[in-house]
Request: fold
Amino acid sequence: MITKVTKLKVCMIGATGVGKTSLVGRLVHSIFSETYRTTIGVQIEAYEMHRGNHKVQLIIWDLSGEDEFQSVQPAYVSGSAGYLLVVDGTRRETVDTGRTLEERVRHAAGNVPFVAVVNKADLVASWEMRPADLEPLRKRASGVVETSARSGVGVREAFELLVGAILTRMSPQWT
Amino acid sequence: MDLSTVLAALDSVVLDRIADGRFERKSGAPSWWHALVDEPSGSIQPLVISDVFPFLSAFLPDAERAWSSAVPSPIASELWTQTDAARNEIHLEATAARVDDSAVLVIARNDQAFFGRQLLLQRARELRLTHDALMREIEREDILLHTIVHDLAAPLHSIMGSLSLLRALDLPPAAGRWTEIAVQAAARQRQLIQGILHVFVAEQSGAETIPPGGVELLRAMERAVSEREPVARQRQVTLAMHPTGSFRIAADETRLLRVLTNLVDNAIRHSPPGKQVSMTAVAEDGSVQLSIDDEGSGVSPDMLPNLFQKLARDPRGGGTGLGLYFCRITVELWGGGIGYEPRPSGGARFWIRLPIAATGRDDRAQKVDHG
Reply:
């Protein structure tokens, strides 16, 4: 029996083309498309998770990727309970963008929990990223999860880890 | 005509903010409204707008400015996308305006603006991602190619060693000639491999390889002259140095020596016997210009546009087509430049200009004569 419902705003943050929308699509609709479709502005999705008798309603703000054409608006991350910081294992430079964004989000949303997600685990043979590249993020993140939006590996775990970190901070008895 | 119905037909809905901060719909409901808003049929209930449209929680602070400003002026939001229960994506935008004393919010479906913008951004981003992927591929192929070239050099050392031992033997004249040809071919191959590897290293290196305090130019010039002296003597060319002072320049010693020997080799190769190749260094405005002059025929005008490009080969022969390219990318990496000019008295002048290192000139007043 559901005894408590909590609504959480969480954001998807990262460079362009890292797979933020694909991760949301995999979680919410269990789908994956090979076609790259850029996000314009913000795409809002809702998803429910259960932790014991508690229902968590995630309002997922999938933000347009950070690049020379668009940048993440501080107003969009304001009020977030936490976020997934997504990087692309095959593109090392997306870690640098991720680190810059992490600082910017911390400034706009405060020191909320985040999980670093290294996406495209299905292309691990083409990964440029070395474990050391993630060290600065690993120190600050609630966890680092390797995911594949294509296969679904790690996707749910990443969101669950984030929700767990948020709820722990809100109220330790949630865990 | 009912304006409320017109607005609904235009996929727009007008909302009015009431005293408790919630919003009431004041116009007809377009079809997308029913797909997103859980509204009992036949009744209009006040809404906590950010519950229904979470994106608006980011827009409402801006909207508030439009509603409270002394000079009312509508403010529009960015586009956002919401998905209905049937997984249809609905692209929306909001406009806040003050009308009479009412705080009005108009939410409109705007697929046209969304797809127009998406088409543009999608194209730009795809091009960027493709470009980056190609650059990574080129880099990977470059590394593979240079690993192969590097590995080709290893057996060459054995070939050259064996040929040198063979040459030292008392061979019949014909065998001696064939051996000499083989030695020269192996030496050319080694030069080509070294050229390729040097270019690769220069292309991959960063300016951070410059040691603090830089390099003493005079010492590098002396080393270049002493290294190339045997080749010059063999071709009956004289090497001369005319430095006007001792400078420390912003460079890495090993690569500076390669730059100098490349330029000196080039000058020797194009000098007729009995002529001179001279090097002169002059300080000017925080940098040093080093010139290498020869008394050959100069560079053909056809060659000039591509002189410092990769694989720009001199039709007169010799060289790998990589030497001047290596010199250019190396000195440019250090914030310097390279150039060519024909000498008025005939022959070629190649020059490089490099910044003086932070520690500056060793002794600006002192004249050094090594000529």
User: Anything to note?
Assistant: The first strand of chain B starts at residue 12 and ends at 17. The interface with chain A takes residues 54-55, 57-59, 61-62, 78-83, 87, 89, 91, 114, 117-118, 121-122, 124-126, 128-129, 132, 136 of chain B (CB under 8 Å). The first helix of chain B runs from residue 3 to 9. Residues 360-371 of chain B have pLDDT under 50 and may be disordered.
